[in-house]
Specification:
Layout (H helix, E strand, L loop, with lengths): L1 H8 L15 H5 L5 H11 L7 H28 L7 H11 L2 H23 L4
Helix pairs in contact: 4-5, 5-6
Length: 127
């Protein structure tokens, strides 16, 4: 009896195929708004320039689309490897599969550096 209980508590190795996954209504409608960050980056690059709200909406849609593609591809890789946890390797491989050539290399490099800076800044904050 105890052995069967242990098997039930383990992570399921049989993941559903991406096309057969059910998504709840809240999951499909979830999208973040990056308009504030888009405007901040533009002001850092060129303080004299401005951007229309329609253009910000287009860029926001593009960012959410790319994020969804990366997360879906990383999930598929996780399932392919029969893992229960999404790792940084899955995300990096998803980037290499989705973006061509040097774009993926730069994206992975800058992403890794950003995570290292964040972890370093968290470790140096006095509590």
């Amino acid at each position: 009896m105890a052995k069967s209980n242990i098997k039930k508590n383990k992570c399921s190795r049989r993941h559903q195929k991406p096309s057969s996954r059910k998504r709840s209504q809240s999951c499909t409608d979830f999208s973040r708004n990056y308009s504030l960050y888009i405007r901040r980056v533009l002001k850092e690059v060129d303080p004299q320039k401005s951007i229309s709200s329609h253009t910000v909406d287009i860029m926001n849609t593009m960012i959410n689309n790319i994020f969804e593609r990366i997360s879906t591809q990383a999930y598929d890789l996780m399932c392919f490897r029969n893992r229960c946890t999404l790792t940084h390797e899955d995300i990096q491989r998803a980037m290499y599969m989705l973006f061509p050539g040097k774009r993926s290399k730069y994206a992975v490099t800058f992403g890794s550096e950003a995570v290292q800076r964040y972890v370093h800044s968290k470790n140096n904050v006095p509590r």
